Amino acid sequence: MADDELEAALDAASDAGLQVIVTVGMDVAMSARGVTVSESADMVFAAVGVHPWMAQDHPDGAPVDEIETLAMNDKVVALGEIGLDFVDNSWRGISYRDDELRRHQEIVFREQLRLARRLGLPVILHSRGAHGATTRILEEEGAGAVGGCVQFFEGTVEDVRAYLSLNFGFSLGSSVTYPDTGGWYDVVRAIPASALLLETDAPWLPFCGNPSDRGSPADLVVIGDAVAEVRGEDPAALFAYTARNARRVFPGVRTGTWPAG
């Protein structure tokens, strides 16, 4: 994102009522960029880490030293986006049916979980087509000690129970704005209010009906309204309690307030 585009996105987010944004890394370079942005914008905080899509770019394992160096910055509040993805990736032209790629993802994931525990930082999880393996590894690595959230969660009611038992919450994004074709809304309603967060995953998936083909942080208001409608709740109340949850999950956020409506 160019500097002028970034400035416009932050201005739009502020106009929409957001006062804090957590930007999430996918590899060392993107994580470093997120830290740089956070240093220049009071409302922005950062998460750093290697996404499972990038795991195969690190044949010797996660670049733990580089991630730890970035994590020492005061504006870094989590490790992420880390985890597992077993769904074929058309963007990178990779089939995750390859057992070796899955095995390597697990190595990179475990190394970053161990770093998170050592640093006392929560984690932002990516788990797609892999909830069983993800929850198994979280339990084996004692990740409940730091907790965090499952980013852009799209699991089942059973997955909700498994993550809750491990001290993880659920961040819902723009998929909630699309029609329910298979019981997804039942899962949204099954998430306890105490474990629910909101996100945009910008720029990857715009909300349903968005005239743009890219999402933006300001879309959080539309997403929150959609989640409230699915759950049969007052939007203002939902924004208030998801803000409290976010403060608890990311205690490193020390300034500003989260969107209240």
Summary tags:
globular; 9 helices; seven-stranded parallel β-sheet; 14% strand; alpha/beta
Written account of the structure:
This protein is α/β, with parallel strands linked by helices and 261 residues long. Helix 2 links the parallel strand 1 and strand 2. The protein is globular. A seven-stranded parallel beta sheet has the order 1-2-3-4-5-6-7. It contains nine helices and seven strands, in the order αβαβαβαβαβαβαβαα.
Regions with little confidence, pLDDT below 50 for 5+ residues: 256-261
Based on CA atoms alone, the radius of gyration comes out at 17 Å
Structural class: alpha/beta
- How much is the average pLDDT? 92
Helix content: 40-55%
Give a short summary of the structure:
This protein is of the alpha/beta class.
